[in-house]
Amino acid sequence: MPSRQRERSATFTIESNIAKYQASHEALEKTNAAIESQFSAIDRLSEANEKAGVTFDSFTEKQLAARKALTELVSGWRDQH
Q1: pTM to 2 decimals?
Q2: What Rg value do the Cα atoms of the chain yield, rounded?
Q3: pLDDT, tens digit (0-9, with 9 covering 90-100), for 65-78
């Protein structure tokens, strides 16, 4: 293979590898962005679950307090009648 032809072949190979690298890098960037988006969604869901858990616990406490108050009210009414 003549020297010039080897140089062209090497140049083509380098350019081809650079193009493949750039395409691979772009694909990796897109994948990383998608992963970050998923992590963000997981964080938002986790925060919502934590808030819902606190809200549910608060609701349960209020419900138990209301039930206790009603039970005491009914018991007091029965005792009077």
Answers
A1: 0.53
A2: 35
A3: 999 998 888 888 77
